[in-house]
Amino acid sequence: MIEMQDIWKTYANGSHALRGVSVLIDRNEFVYLVGPSGAGKSTFMKLIYREEVPTKGQISVNGFNIGKLKPRKIPYVRRNIGVIFQDYRLLPKLSAYENVAFAMEVIEAPRRLIRKRTMEVLELVGLRDKHASLPAQLSGGEQQRVAIARAIVNNPAVIVADEPTGNLDPDTSWGIMHLLEEINFRGTTIIMATHNREIVNRQRKRVIAIEEGLIARDEARGEYGYEI
Fold it and tell me: Strand pairing of 206-211 and 30-34?
C-alpha cells in the first residue's frame, strides 16, 4: 500500500514539483498517472522508490516511512519496488539473462535461485529463447520486456513504470500492456505514468491526473482527459 499525506516537493530554485498531494493506492491496484509534461508525475513516482524525498509531508510504501528512512534501509525497501523506464536502461554488454539476473545478484540471492527465477521471468515475458541476446540484438519491444523481467524478478509488491510504451509502436505497446496486466493480475500494484490516450481510455482503470503539482482528478474508471 502507498499513502501520501500532504506531500510537498520544493527544489532549490523555489519551484514546487508537488503541492500538498494526498493519495492512497491500495495493494493490487493498477493506476494511470496522467497530466501535462512538467506537471509533477516523475517526482510523484521518484518519491515512491526514494529517488527523491519530500520537502514536507509523509509517504509510506509497504509500511515504510520513505522520508525518514536511514540510508542503510533504502536497499531493503527498493527490493519490493520494481522500476520500468521509457529508455529501458539495460546494461549494453550484458545478455538479456545477465541483465535480469543482475537484479538478483545485487541482493545476494543464491546462485541456483537466480538461475531458476531469471529463466521463469524470461519465460513470462516471452524471451526465454533470446536469453543469450545482447540488448543491441533485440527490438525495442523486446528490450522493454527484458526491462520488465528485471523489474519483477525479485517479486516486488509495487511496480513504477515511467512511460513504458513511449518509444514503442502501437502493436508492441499493446503487447507490453497485456504483459503488465498479467503481472497486476498476479498481485503486483502498478503505477504507470503515460501520455498514451488510447491505452488509458480503452483500459478504464483508476486515473490520477496531476497538474501544476496538484491532484486535478482521481477517478476509479477514468479517461485520459487531455487533447494530444
Answer: parallel
